[in-house]
Design goal:
By secondary structure, this protein is α+β, with helices and mostly antiparallel strands. The protein folds into 2 domains: 198 residues, Jelly Rolls, CATH 2.60.120.10; 113 residues, Arc Repressor Mutant, subunit A, CATH 1.10.10.60. It has 12 helices and 12 strands. The chain has a 7-stranded antiparallel β-sheet, sandwiched between helices. The radius of gyration is 27 Å and the shape is elongated. The N terminus is likely disordered. This is Helix-turn-helix domain-containing protein. InterPro entries: AraC-bd_2, AraC_XylS_family_regulators, Homeodomain-like_sf, HTH_AraC, HTH_AraC-typ_CS, Tscrpt_reg_AraC-type_HTH.
Length: 328
């Protein structure tokens, strides 16, 4: 039975469906999950036996729960998101059995040793093919210190010890620390929970850094191409346009092997080179082409063009015209 609500640090609760009539279990389990986490819906196969157990405690901003449930499905649909304003981030760490977590078009296959982030602000589904046990951590989204665009990259992705970099080092420490929280004295649990939250934030940042969002990259590069003619176009303008921090913008371009200014400069040079290759009496002067593609100084344009292509803009135009005549 439900023995408490998470209203203050250290206050715990436990719930089990075992003493309930089979016909009452789904509604009671759904109600309990929605109270402890966020509004959720539960579905089970009526022909298969099941039971659910949930133990949870809150320490500071971090809530730690252990769920035993399955087979069944846990759903946070669009209606639940609209009706429930809680916007926490949840982390599912698989302890026994397996689970599928689906959010934002991604599917995280969870087995013991893996965890996945999911965002209560958007719909998600957790499919449990058999009875399983998992630890669920819930925290305010601000605790991860990530931009919204970064959080959308994070959701529905698998984190495990087989990863590279900091994740491979931090995940075992996080798992051990969470086990220690359950065994520690009351005086130490909140301190350990704070450390666990910091490790989670570091793991989340590392995970995001390794998975740049293709959709965001596409939106940024398309918009920048449309603004190449703006001489004053700066990284801060681009970041503001897309609602991300300047730091994240630079990190996104770094993950694609370039810099913001370097990428803009090369796109401007490519566009100018294409225009210079166009033949005909109506073509623009080299200075006009440079200005059209955001270069404020013709001499700087010529120098940059030569560095990139090994010839001056005039030489490139002459070569392109000669090639066009030879094909006539």
């Amino acid at each position: 039975m439900l023995t408490g609500a998470l209203t203050s640090p250290g206050r715990g609760m436990f719930f089990s469906t075992r003493d309930l009539a089979p016909g009452d279990r789904v509604a009671a389990w759904e109600r309990t999950l929605s109270q402890v986490f966020v509004n959720l819906e539960v579905a089970v196969d009526g022909d298969r036996p099941w039971a659910g157990e949930l133990a949870a405690e809150r320490w500071g901003a971090l809530q730690i729960a252990t769920e035993v449930f399955g087979p069944g499905t846990i759903l946070r649909g669009a209606g639940s998101v609209a009706a429930d304003q809680r916007t926490h981030i949840l982390v599912r760490q698989q302890l026994d059995g397996d689970a599928l977590l689906l959010q934002d078009g991604r599917m995280a296959e969870l087995v013991p040793g893996r965890l996945a982030f999911h965002d209560a602000r958007r719909p998600f589904r957790i499919v449990l093919p058999r009875r399983q046990r998992a630890r669920i951590l819930m925290m305010p989204r601000a605790l991860l210190r990530l931009e919204e665009a970064q959080l959308s990259v994070l959701s529905g992705t698998v984190v495990d010890e087989a990863g590279e970099g900091a994740v491979a080092l931090l995940l075992p420490s996080l798992c051990g620390l969470l086990e220690e929280v359950t065994r520690a004295t009351t005086a130490r649990r909140e301190q350990l929970a704070r450390v666990a939250a910091e490790i989670l934030a570091t793991v989340a940042l590392e995970q995001v850094s390794r998975r740049p969002t293709s959709a965001l990259w596409e939106r940024i590069t398309v918009s920048v191409r449309a603004r190449l003619g703006e001489p004053g176009l700066a990284p801060q303008d681009i970041a503001d346009q897309h609602g991300i921090s300047l730091r994240y913008l630079h990190r996104l371009f770094q993950l694609h092997g370039t810099t913001v200014n370097g990428w803009v400069r090369m796109r401007r040079l490519e566009a100018a080179r294409q225009e210079l290759a166009q033949s005909g009496p109506a073509h623009r002067s080299i200075a006009a082409v440079a200005a059209r593609w955001g270069f404020t100084s013709p001499s700087h344009f010529s120098r940059t063009f030569r560095e990139a292509y090994g010839m001056s803009p005039m030489q490139w135009r002459s070569a392109a015209e000669a090639d066009a005549r030879s094909r006539c």
